[in-house]
């Protein structure tokens, strides 16, 4: 359809250009010094063969101009398509990058929460360990205190009776 329109346009231009080229004027016998004199073109004096060659040259030049215009148009379209595609790719890349950065941040937050929970758990275990150690120390101190009091009471009892203990340090017999 576009090719037909171009052909029709070219034939119209050829017809218009044929009408524009002036024909040679017939020789006149008048000798008016103030009369308008037509200047003859160099191409027009050669006859129809030169005119046809000139028209063919014009048609050829017009065709070349149309081809060049089409080529420039196609190049511009290709550039626009490539620019649009590159823009799409860049926006896609930026969106994916933002998505991955958000995922990374979310994972980091989860890891921070897990780390805090694990630290809390270890602190609780450490506190429990310290509490247990304190309880064992207290029990040992209490038992030592009881044993000291018992040893003092037994020593007082043996002193009161005037007897010697039958076992020394629980190992030796007297």
UniProtKB/TrEMBL annotation:
Pfam families per UniProt: Remorin_C, Remorin_N
Residue span(s) of domain Remorin C-terminal: 62-167
Keywords: Coiled coil
Record's keyword annotation contains Coiled coil: yes
Remorin N-terminal domain ranges (all copies): 11-58
Protein origin, superkingdom: Eukaryota
InterPro entries, A to Z: Remorin_C, Remorin_N
Coiled coil: 97-135
Family assignment from sequence similarity: Belongs to the remorin family.
Protein's name according to its UniProt entry: Remorin C-terminal domain-containing protein
């Amino acid at each position: 359809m576009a090719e037909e329109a171009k052909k029709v346009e070219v034939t119209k231009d050829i017809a218009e250009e044929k009408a524009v080229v002036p024909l040679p004027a017939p020789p006149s016998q008048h000798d008016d010094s103030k009369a308008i004199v037509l200047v003859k073109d160099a191409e027009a004096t050669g006859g129809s063969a030169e005119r046809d060659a000139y028209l063919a040259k014009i048609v050829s030049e017009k065709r070349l101009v149309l081809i060049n215009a089409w080529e420039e148009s196609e190049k511009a379209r290709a550039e626009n398509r490539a620019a649009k595609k590159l823009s799409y790719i860049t926006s896609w890349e930026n969106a994916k990058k933002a998505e991955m950065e958000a995922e990374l941040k979310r994972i980091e937050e989860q890891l921070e929460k897990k780390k805090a929970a694990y630290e809390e758990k270890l602190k609780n275990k450490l506190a429990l360990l310290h509490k247990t150690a304190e309880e064992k120390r207290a029990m040992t101190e209490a038992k030592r205190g009881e044993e000291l009091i018992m040893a003092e009471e037994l020593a007082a009892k043996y002193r009161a009776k005037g007897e010697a203990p039958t076992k020394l340090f629980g190992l030796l017999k007297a």
